[in-house]
Amino acid sequence: MALPAYKRKGALRRALIDATTFNLAGLAATVTLTKAGAPVNGTNGTGAGVANPGQLLVDTTTGILYQNTGTQASPTWTTRFSTTGDAQSVTTGITASTTQTLVGATALTSKINFVATAANSGDAVSLPALSPGQSVTVFNDGANPIKVFPAASGIQIDGGTAGASVTLTNARRATFYCKSATAITSAQLGAVAS
Questions:
Q1: Measured distance CA(65)–CA(58) in Å, rounded
Q2: Cα three-residue angle 52-53-56, rounded to 5 degrees
Q3: Is there a domain that residue 3 lies in?
Q4: In this structure, are 185 and 166 located in the same domain?
Q5: The model's pTM
Q6: With the C-alpha atoms ordered 40, 41, 44, 47, is the resulting torsion angle positive or negative?
Q7: Contact 184, 178 (CB under 8 A)
Q8: CA distances from 167 to 93, 121, 140, 151 (A)
Q9: Rounded (5°) CA angle 185-191-194
Q10: pLDDT per residue over 154-179, tens digit each?
């Protein structure tokens, strides 16, 4: 009589290796993926069809920790920690959208964002989706004040109306801290005096 699949030699080990998330007696666990070398993004990249959003991957040759900030079908591997310290994603040369609305705002995608062009007062950007404890910094290097919207209509910035923007004047910068799923608090940063 053949043994059930789960009792065959190596079956459990293969199941744990093949699974990215599993549930055992009500306890959930996530397996951290490993790969020698940097992961590749996209539908044919590392972990495509397997790595859930938020899944972690460690490059075993460098020790760099990555997180899937994309989808399961098309992972985007974002550096979260490297051996030289906490890596911060940076985007420069951003143009604020002239639509000046939440829906039409230029979506920010990095931890640190430099808005270079604000052609009109009130041109808009929107924050990336944030989880409690995360933050994002916006520098307004444009010629005009910009509107900074939350990622979605149900989120308040600084206790204002859900989905409403706050103004970031030109030559200023602010860090936006997510304190709950529906609340963000900003802190305007000053320039260092010489």
A1: 5
A2: 80
A3: no
A4: yes
A5: 0.59
A6: positive
A7: yes
A8: 19, 10, 10, 15
A9: 160
A10: 999 999 999 999 999 999 999 999 99
Cα–Cα dist 176/51, whole Å:
28
Token pair belonging to 185: 């608090």
H or E, element range at 15? helix 11-18
How many structural domains does the chain have? 2
Q: Are 141 and 114 in contact (CB under 8 A)?
A: yes
Which of the listed residues 51, 67, 87 is the one where a domain comes to its end? 87
Residue 145 lies in a domain: yes
Enumerate residues 6+ apart whose C-beta is below 8 A from 113: 90, 91, 94, 125, 136, 137, 138, 139
pLDDT tens figures, 104-148:
999 999 999 999 999 999 999 999 998 888 899 999 999 999 999
Q: Which CATH number goes with the domain that contains 127?
A: 2.60.120.640
User: What domain range includes position 36?
Assistant: 32-87
